[in-house]
Every structure is written in C-alpha cells, then in structure tokens.
Amino acid sequence: MLVEAIHGEYRECRIPGLVRTGHGTLLGYYECRDSTSDWARIDLKIIRSTDGGESWETVLLIPGEGHTLNNPVMIVDGETVHFLYCRDYKELFYRRSSDDGVSFSETRDITHVFRAHGFYNAAAVGPGHGIVHKGDLIVAAWFSENHDDPMAHRPTKLRTVYSPDGGETWILGGVVGRYDLKDPNESALALLPDNRVLISIRHRNLKRKCRVFGYSETGRADWYSVHYRDDIPDPVCMGSMTSAEDGTMFHINCAAKKTRTNLTLRVSEDGFATYRDILVDEIAGYSDVAVDAQTKTAYILYERDADNGGLYFKKLNYAE
C-alpha cells in the first residue's frame, strides 16, 4: 500500500519510523526532502491511522524552514508518545503527545545531550523508534567525529540517549563497540525475553556485511558480547527491531549483502538464537515495524523506491 507518493515540492520521502500505541493507533513519521541529499531542506511529517493502516491522516508537518530536519524517533510509554528529532545533524529536540498522537507539545531544545559527547561534526538519534526499559526511555544515537569535513557521517561512535523521568531530563549513555567495529551508526534497540536490552548495529566493516548484536543490562552503558551475526546479512542499511508483550521479538532489514533488496522480517521466541524469516518485499530500503501480539499482526512502514515510489505500508500475519 502506497502511503506517501513523491509530489509537489518534495523530491523524496525517506527514513520512516512506526509505533503502535496502547489504543492500537499507528503513528508513522518520516523525512520529506527537496533533494536526494541527506543535507537537503527537509520537513518532518507525522501520520496517524486508527484502523490498522487502512487509512492515514496527517497529524503534523514540521517545516524545516530551510534547515535539515532529520532522524525522527518515537517512544511509546503508556499513554504518552515521546518524539525526538534533529536539526542539521547538530541539534536535538523533544516533543510529546498525551492524546494518542492527535497533537504534540511545543518543541524543547535538548541539544545539551549531544554536546556532552564532546566534539562532533554530525550526530543523530535513531532512526526508527526507541524503547522503555525499567522506566527509562532509550534511543540509539551516533556521533561523527570528522575534523576535516563538517558534512561527513563518519568516522563514528555509537551511544544511547536515555531519560529516567519520562522525558523531563535526557542523559548521554556509554559508547557501544569493539575494536573491529568500523563506523557504527544507525542502530535499533529491543527488549529480550529476560529483560536485557539488545542492540542491532549497522556498521561499515565491509569484510563482514552483516548486523552486529550487543547486550546491556540497562541500555545506558556497559555493553557486552558485541558480536557479528553473519547469519543476518546487511548491505550497510538501517534495520529495526521490536518486542511483543509475550516476548516474541522481531528484526527487519534488507537481507542481502550487496543491494538493498529482500526486505525480511525475522520472528524469534528465544532472543534470536533461532528465528523464522518472512519476505516482506523484494525491493526496499529503510523500514520500521510495530506489532499487535493479540492478532499476530506485524505492521511495516518502509522505503520501496525512494526516488520514484515513495513510502509503502504492509501488514501481515506473522504466525502463518
């Protein structure tokens, strides 16, 4: 199902995120770019569906006003939807919704969280969505440290950003990595059945074109067993994860090493020791997934052909 076609002033719509609230409402969000560049003039759009993705309405369009608004991320925490996004890969902003995504609060600047990293020429949260773990709101964040090129997106370090008090304050977490993990950046978080935090990492070690997994007891710091998952190939693209209330876990990414093709949803009941593969689409790019455990439905918002086809939505029964 085509959700957003390319039209009017926008050259492409990219970097989709998707969450499902406790009321069953789906909230999608993404960048609307005036060119194909990551540094294009970019607006952000939030769309909302109360019928399982059969129809959508635009809730909010945040104008970039000539700036690059990038990497929108949402976190669902009970009745509150938290929303973070960046401007010009330098600044970080926060809003929230208390009415199931119908409206959002005024913007609050929380760039101090990024500045706690020290020098960076570019930084961003997400993309995709964040998690709630033991009361903390947590999102992944990457930082480029290039002294020569202010627009470069590497070399990078990977961290998390978290809030221990429902979005009132935000804190920078510890570095995630290992000696041979080259330029880790856009990463996803999910809760394991034993309530540890799992991170799935995109990176640029081109000799090992696959996802990298790591674990933390808190999601704040102290990441361990950071290891390559050669069984989950990745063409250096964004991937996403989520967890259902019954402990079932989901990982979605382009399951090819050379091209952004074969968008695959992996479903696991044992923390990805084993899993089942479901092909979502043969052509794809960035994607995000939300689930309804009661009906065994997975909802997927994804790039199918960013230059020509816009963003697509698909739902499927993951138990079949």
Provide a concise account of the structure shown.
By secondary structure, the chain is mainly beta. 1% of the residues lie in helices and 51% in strands.
Descriptive notes:
This protein has a single domain, classed as Neuraminidase, CATH 2.120.10. Strand 20 and strand 21 form a beta hairpin. The model has no long low-confidence stretch (mean pLDDT 95). The longest helix has 4 residues. It is an all-beta fold.
Radius of gyration: 18 Å
- What summary fits the major beta sheet? 5 strands, mixed
What structural class do helix, strand and pairing data support? mainly beta
Distance between the termini: 20 Å
Q: How many DSSP helices?
A: 1
Count of all domains: 1
Helix content: under 10%
Percent of residues in beta strands: over 45%
Known CATH architecture: 6 Propeller
* CATH class label: Mainly Beta
User: Could you spell the SSE succession in H and E letters?
Assistant: EEEEEEEEEHEEEEEEEEEEEEEEEEE
Q: How would you describe the shape?
A: globular
Mean pLDDT: 95
Which features does this protein show?
mainly beta; Neuraminidase; five-stranded mixed beta sheet; 1 helix; 26 strands
